[in-house]
Design a protein that fits this description.
Length: 224
């Protein structure tokens, strides 16, 4: 009976130790998961925004894309601006190239380095950012959607600044061993701009695309 009682006490102590270790593991895992996911999402957003900006700059520089390649300004016999027409074909080409180039840039680096100070993982406000850094290997998966936006600004008497903006929305996941975290980011880049001198255009053609197919809605203002 004494031996059975001894074994029972040992078994109970063993079970309690296992339960304690498991509880500590869950607490540490929960804290690490939050910190690692927040860090990886932030790094993922930064990497994607930087990549998109670099891709757009390189695309416009290498192919020498200018305002006149995207927008056609029409004038009457007196030189007055009568309409602005955005080239849907050029916009579709640029959007396609941005998506392809971003995907290629991300694919070139299969893994990214993620370094988190151990003090930050501990989660104490006095230790944040302190201590040696724990290194992780991180992968990024993402989807990129590019849209064009036309903006007009007053630039003086009888002058209008016309800008073509590229708005890029990104969403995806960062993957760190044992952890996966979603992220989303958005950036806007001026693709082209010019100052239009003269009367306000009597007509403006704006091409808006729907979805990923070739469906388009064309709006002409002041042409009738």
């Amino acid at each position: 009976m004494r031996k059975k009682g001894k074994y029972l006490r040992i078994l109970i102590i063993f079970i309690l130790i296992i339960a304690l270790v498991f509880s500590v593991f869950l607490i540490v895992d929960r804290r690490m998961r939050r910190v690692i996911c927040d860090y990886s999402s932030s790094v993922g957003e930064t990497v994607m925004i930087k990549t998109v900006d670099e891709v757009i700059s390189e695309l416009f520089y290498s192919e020498n894309i200018e305002y006149s390649d995207i927008v056609t300004v029409s004038r009457d016999s007196e030189g007055k601006v009568t309409s602005l027409e955005v080239s849907a074909a050029k916009i579709n080409y640029i959007k396609s190239r941005i998506s392809v180039k971003v995907a290629e840039s991300i694919a070139l680096r299969e893994k990214y380095d993620l370094e988190i100070p151990i003090g930050t993982i501990i989660g104490n406000e006095y230790t944040v950012g302190r201590g040696p850094k724990i290194k992780f290997k991180m992968q990024i998966t993402t989807t990129v959607i590019a849209d064009f936006e036309s903006r007009f600004y007053s630039a003086g008497i009888n002058q209008v600044l016309h800008q073509i903006h590229i708005k890029v929305r990104m969403s995806g996941h960062t993957v760190v061993p044992w952890y996966k975290s979603p992220f989303s980011a958005e950036t806007s880049v001026i693709a082209a701009q010019t100052v239009i001198v003269g009367m306000t255009p009597e007509a403006y053609t704006n091409v808006i695309e729907a979805g990923t197919d070739a469906t388009q809605d064309i709006f002409d203002f002041g042409t009738h």
